[in-house]
Design a protein that fits this description.
Number of domains: 1
Number of helices: 7
CATH topology: Rossmann fold
Helix content: 40-55%
Order of helices and strands: EHEHEHEHEHEHHE
Largest sheet: 7 strands, parallel
Shape: globular
Pfam families: adh_short
Organism: Thalassotalea euphylliae
Protein name: SDR family oxidoreductase
Low-confidence stretches: none
CATH superfamily: NAD(P)-binding Rossmann-like Domain
Distance between the termini: 45 Å
InterPro entries: NAD(P)-bd_dom_sf, Sc_DH/Rdtase_CS, SDR_fam
GO molecular function, one term: oxidoreductase activity, acting on the CH-OH group of donors, NAD or NADP as acceptor
Radius of gyration: 17 Å
Amino acid sequence: MTKSLIVITGASSGIGAAMAKRFSAAGHSLLLVARRIEKIEALGLPNAMCRQVDVTDAEAFKAAIKEAEAKFGAVDCLINNAGLMMLGQIDTQDPSEWQRMYDVNVMALLNGMQAVLADMKARNHGTIMNISSIAGKKSFPNHAAYVGTKFAVSAITENVREEVADTGVRVMAICPGAVETELLGHTSDQEIIDGYQAWKDAMGGVLHADDIARTAEFMYAQPQGVNIRDVVITATRQQP
């Protein structure tokens, strides 16, 4: 018997892949969603359904969830982890990059929440965990559009948490600082990439994806009556 179903978006690398490994090791059945299906299949996790889904496609996302629920039972936890970070100055950045970030970081997160929330409320049980960012708490140079998406994630998370609290459903946010993942690779400005890398080097290294996965595992493992609403986690030497 496996434990309850957990859905993880953006599971092909970085934080998503680390979470998949942690929750699989804890005995959970999984729906792993990503664009690069070969990456999630290569994780080789037991009781894991791997589906190639663009999370901005609400109907495809819902269909994958229904398929997983038919096999494993109701979703007990949705982790909205998929995200894009495309840094730039507002006066020079390609507006198409803003749109892509808002589609993935905000609209897809709303799609996921809508796909599972009604059933969780009906059962008076369930957890939604949204991966925001320290950039959902404060501003950073070259981050304006990205910061906007992550402030939205943090605000949406808190707003929905209040709305569903009386049903017993938990809604949580994790706000990581700099983490060693592929996220920076989405940025197209090489000068900004170089500056960001120098900033990471100056603090003597940043968080690893598994640091966030351990945090998520701890938050989810609390009794349903305990909601760790919002966690900011950074490398000790990260100042801003």
